[in-house]
Amino acid sequence: MSELPPCPTCGEGYTYEDQGFLVCPSCGEEWAADAAGAPAAEDVITDANGNPLADGDTVTVIKDLKVKGSSTVVKVGTKVKNIRLVGGDHDIDCKIDGIGAMKLKSEFVRKV
Q: What confidence score (pLDDT) does residue 99 get?
């Protein structure tokens, strides 16, 4: 019998296989069986030019961006310092001077 890996979320060793997925009955987590045992490959977030971004980088906005729910606009050329990468559609968390905390899409920034 093959040894199944423990749950990546809760660490319990009661995992079982179900239709190509590994399932943890303790917390309900499901993950692909082919990824079991292999280290999780992180998605590389890139800027508009294809350069990889990292936490703490400084980027420049390459397009005027309207701020949702406000009449302000983030202008082209605005420098954003000390970005934080997160998952999802808007994959950059940042703080812009004069506007405040925002989420940006990496396709609208260029690494400095």
A: 92
* Cβ count near 109 (within 10 Å): 25
Mean pLDDT of the chain: 86
Using alpha carbons, list the distances in angstroms from residue 4 to 12, 43, 79, 87, 99: 11, 25, 47, 27, 49
Q: Specify the pLDDT at position 38.
A: 42
Q: Which of 69, 68, 59 is nearest to 91 (CA)?
A: 59
Residue 1 reports pLDDT greater than 70: no
Output the CA torsion sign for 13, 16, 17, 21.
Answer: negative
Average pLDDT over residues 43-56: 91
Q: What is the DSSP string of 1-27?
A: -PPPPPPTTT--S--EEETTEEE-TTT
Residue 18 has pLDDT above 70, yes or no: yes
Report the distance separating Cα 43 and Cα 87, nearest Å: 9
**Is residue 16 within 8 Å of residue 4, measured between CB atoms?**
yes
d(CA 70, CA 4): 51
